[in-house]
Design goal:
- Helix 3 packs parallel to helix 4 and helix 4 packs across helix 5.
- With 168 residues, this protein is an alpha/beta fold.
- The chain has a 6-stranded mixed β-sheet with strand order 1-6-5-2-4-3, sandwiched between helices.
- The protein contains 5 helices and 6 strands.
- The two termini are 18 Å apart.
């Protein structure tokens, strides 16, 4: 089944989706950026549950419940290790694993942040191309919709451009 892909400039924790992805480190502690926003909005129980499942390999992902969030699950994708650095292959692997985990959960919708572009300082345009490409190629069983939840005009434009390229 081909996924419906879209971009939204806004708060990933407020979206009406069944699962949201967290741009995590491999120890799964939730500090700043997307992880911090998820923990603040959903509660510290998300971090406690995540840390209990870690550490995981960089590029892998695990799911937890979503605390007080509207979503049912948080998929924690370890896009970086303790050095807080990432690269194109880790963005690709993490995106794929988050899609797989959401699909295994039976989620119909998943919101993904721009992996590695915050503290990891990965280039936005490259991130968008990789993540959109992985989602476009993903063979889903239950997942129907992927929303790229980004922050700011530059990120929104990068993901919209990647979506336009992918649909040609």
């Amino acid at each position: 089944m081909r996924l419906q892909l879209s971009v939204v400039d806004g708060d990933i924790t407020a979206l009406d989706v069944e699962a949201i992805a967290n741009a995590a480190n491999n120890a799964l502690w939730m500090g700043a950026g997307v992880a911090g926003a998820i923990k603040r909005a959903g509660g510290e129980e998300i971090e406690r549950e995540a840390v209990a499942k870690g550490p995981i390999a960089v590029g892998d992902a695990v799911a937890t419940t979503a605390g007080r969030l509207q979503a049912r699950w948080v998929v924690h994708g370890a896009v970086m290790g303790q050095d807080l650095r990432t690269n194109a292959e880790l963005v690709r692997e993490t995106t794929r694993r988050c899609l797989e985990v959401a699909d295994e959960l039976g989620a119909r919708s998943l919101a993904l942040p721009a992996f590695g572009t915050g503290v990891g300082r990965f280039p936005l345009a490259e991130c968008a191309e990789i993540m959109v490409g992985e989602a476009a190629d993903f063979a889903s069983k239950t997942l129907e919709q992927v929303v790229f939840a980004v922050f700011g005009n530059e990120a929104r434009q990068a993901f919209e451009t990647a979506l336009e390229r992918g649909s040609k």
